[in-house]
Design a protein that fits this description.
- The protein contains five helices and no strands.
- The protein is an all-alpha fold and 129 residues long.
- The chain has a domain of 50 residues.
- The longest helix is centred in the last third of the chain and has 33 residues.
- It is elongated, with a radius of gyration of 19 Å.
- It starts with 7 loop residues before the first helix and ends in a 10-residue tail after the last helix.
Length: 129
């Protein structure tokens, strides 16, 4: 990791601090959601006899939405790995969709942050693009 980089607070105008903090909180929440959904679903796939199916229902519903957000290529790869059916393939399938969920969220929040910078470019010392 690069050393001696300035903290974002050092070069962000105070008027933009709440927006950037919101983006950070949104990212942290998204990581938690991706983690919870994939962890519960992966555990249930690897340990089918140990999971309370009623308690899994909300995760199954959220995983259906998660699949839509990920898009067809990621879902096809997930389904291909799940069909293999071995524990390593199942683990990889869920690990991959967790990673893809985070990548999707990073891209979305980057665009949101860039839009904030573009809208407030007059306040910035450096231009956002």
């Amino acid at each position: 990791m690069a050393k001696n980089l300035p903290k974002w607070e050092d070069f962000t105008p105070g008027t933009l601090t709440p927006a950037i903090e919101h983006v950070q909180k949104t990212f942290a929440s998204s990581v938690w959601k991706c983690s919870e959904i994939t962890e519960k679903m992966c555990y249930s796939a690897l340990h089918p006899g140990e999971v309370d199916t009623a308690g899994l229902t909300p995760y199954e519903e959220n995983f259906r939405l998660y699949r839509i957000i990920l898009g067809n290529p990621a879902v096809r790869e997930f389904d291909r790995l799940i069909k293999i059916g071995t524990p390593p393939a199942i683990f990889k399938a869920y690990s991959d969709v967790f990673r893809k969920g985070i990548e999707t969220e990073v891209a979305r929040l980057f665009e949101e942050t860039l839009a904030i910078g573009l809208a407030q470019s007059k306040e910035l010392k450096l231009q956002p693009c």
